[in-house]
């Protein structure tokens, strides 16, 4: 299945059979073993996160109690932390949870929703630099903001354009986040017990990287921007796959599953309400081969 193609002026090589096999294996393994991925996530989209994890074949457990999260991490396949809506106690609680997950060597996914907005969110996201996640999944603006916050690139010049807070929606193109995503992924890998980490950037064409190789995943549906929680639930499903697969495979499998399912949902729906229902059905019905045979461009 390997070969070459040409996209947007960039030579791109399509993915190898072994990546596709690992993706199909992750999709099947979740359906066969129903792994638990627990979540500490925002109040807006918590229901869609749980339903998407169930539709992908996993199980869900949501909690905001630090000792509950740490005890559940011991029996769960992975943990998902999303900073979309914050309460005052989160500042200390999330830093502490991250440190304990690191001590226990437990994998987790971070969705840095609205990175760059507010002192409390910034303090929380900065605290994760010392106890980093296994995977970061966000939109382009969030990835650019987190990279700047963790100061992984060259120091910004005084006259340089600064990144601006973007709310929960992206104001940057996926392509403008490539270097930030690679730097973050390398940092995650350097700090992971097994040396593996990944960053997934969502948008019109998603991008996934382990810090070395960049994978571009075209397709999907713009209707995803018309339901709340498309990105949050993608983070939750990435955690579901992280329970059975290494970070790069988990990130690729989740993003590809979302692209294929959203294309089916767009064809079968008539607006945001029916789209969300059709999307959950498609997550459930899509085959592992449909996911693994997707276009994956390397380069
Ligand atoms: N313009 C688009 N075309 C196709 N798919 C999109 C588009 N924008 C977002 N998506 C998809 O929607 C999902 C959520 O991504 P995104 O909207 O970037 O996240 P967030 O909600 O966190 O900002 C991803 O599966 C992504 O591929
Ligand atoms: C609207 C909103 N406000 C705080 S969190 C949130 C949900 C964001 O969801 P997503 O990032 O998946 O669009
Ligand atoms: Mg989001």
From TrEMBL:
The protein's annotated catalytic reaction(s) are: 5-(2-hydroxyethyl)-4-methylthiazole + ATP = 4-methyl-5-(2-phosphooxyethyl)-thiazole + ADP + H(+)
Q: Name one GO biological process term.
A: thiamine biosynthetic process
Q: SUPFAM superfamilies from the entry?
A: Ribokinase-like
Identify which top EC class this enzyme belongs to: transferase
Signal sequence bounds: none
Instruction: Report the InterPro entries cross-referenced here.
Output: Hyethyz_kinase (IPR000417), Ribokinase-like (IPR029056)
Upper classification of the source organism reads: Bacteria, Bacillati, Actinomycetota, Actinomycetes, Bifidobacteriales
Organism of provenance: Bifidobacterium erythrocebi
The record's Gene3D superfamilies line, in alphabetical order, gives:
3.40.1190.20
The family assignment reads: Belongs to the Thz kinase family.
Among the GO molecular function terms of this UniProt record, one is: magnesium ion binding
Q: Which UniProt keywords apply?
A: ATP-binding, Kinase, Magnesium, Metal-binding, Nucleotide-binding, Thiamine biosynthesis, Transferase
Q: What does this protein do?
A: Catalyzes the phosphorylation of the hydroxyl group of 4-methyl-5-beta-hydroxyethylthiazole (THZ).
Highest taxon, organism lineage: Bacteria
Binding residues for substrate: 62, 229
Residues reported in the UniProt entry to bind ATP: 137, 202
**Under what name is this protein listed?**
Hydroxyethylthiazole kinase
Q: Its annotated pathway?
A: Cofactor biosynthesis; thiamine diphosphate biosynthesis; 4-methyl-5-(2-phosphoethyl)-thiazole from 5-(2-hydroxyethyl)-4-methylthiazole: step 1/1
Q: What is its EC number?
A: 2.7.1.50
Cofactor(s) in the UniProt record: Mg(2+)
């Amino acid at each position: 299945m390997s070969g070459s193609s040409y996209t947007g002026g960039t030579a791109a090589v399509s993915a190898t059979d072994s990546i596709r096999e690992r993706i199909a294996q992750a999709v099947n393994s979740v359906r066969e073993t129903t792994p638990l991925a627990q979540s500490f996530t925002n109040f807006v989209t918590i229901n869609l996160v749980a339903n998407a994890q169930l539709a992908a074949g996993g199980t869900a457990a949501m909690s905001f109690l630090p000792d509950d999260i740490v005890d559940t991490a011991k029996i769960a396949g992975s943990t998902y932390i999303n900073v979309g809506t914050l309460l005052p106690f989160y500042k200390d609680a999330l830093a502490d949870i991250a440190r304990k997950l690191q001590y226990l060597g437990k994998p987790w996914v971070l969705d840095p929703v609205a990175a760059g907005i507010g002192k409390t969110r910034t303090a929380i996201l900065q605290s994760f630099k010392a106890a980093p996640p296994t995977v970061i999944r966000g939109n382009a603006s969030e990835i650019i903001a987190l990279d700047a916050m963790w100061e992984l690139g060259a120091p910004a010049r005084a006259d340089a354009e600064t990144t601006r807070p973007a709310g929960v929606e992206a104001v940057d193109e996926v392509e403008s986040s490539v270097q930030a995503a690679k730097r973050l992924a390398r940092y995650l890998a350097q700090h992971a017990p097994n040396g593996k980490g990944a960053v997934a950037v969502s948008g019109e064409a998603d991008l996934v990287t382990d810090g070395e190789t960049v994978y571009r995943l075209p397709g999907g549906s713009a209707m995803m921007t018309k339901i709340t929680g498309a990105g949050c639930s993608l983070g939750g499903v990435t955690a579901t796959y992280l329970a059975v697969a290494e970070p790069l495979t988990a990130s690729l499998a989740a993003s590809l599953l979302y692209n294929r399912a959203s294309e089916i949902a767009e064809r079968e729906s008539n607006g945001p309400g029916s789209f969300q229902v059709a999307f959950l059905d498609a997550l459930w019905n899509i085959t592992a081969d449909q996911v693994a045979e997707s276009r994956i461009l390397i380069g």
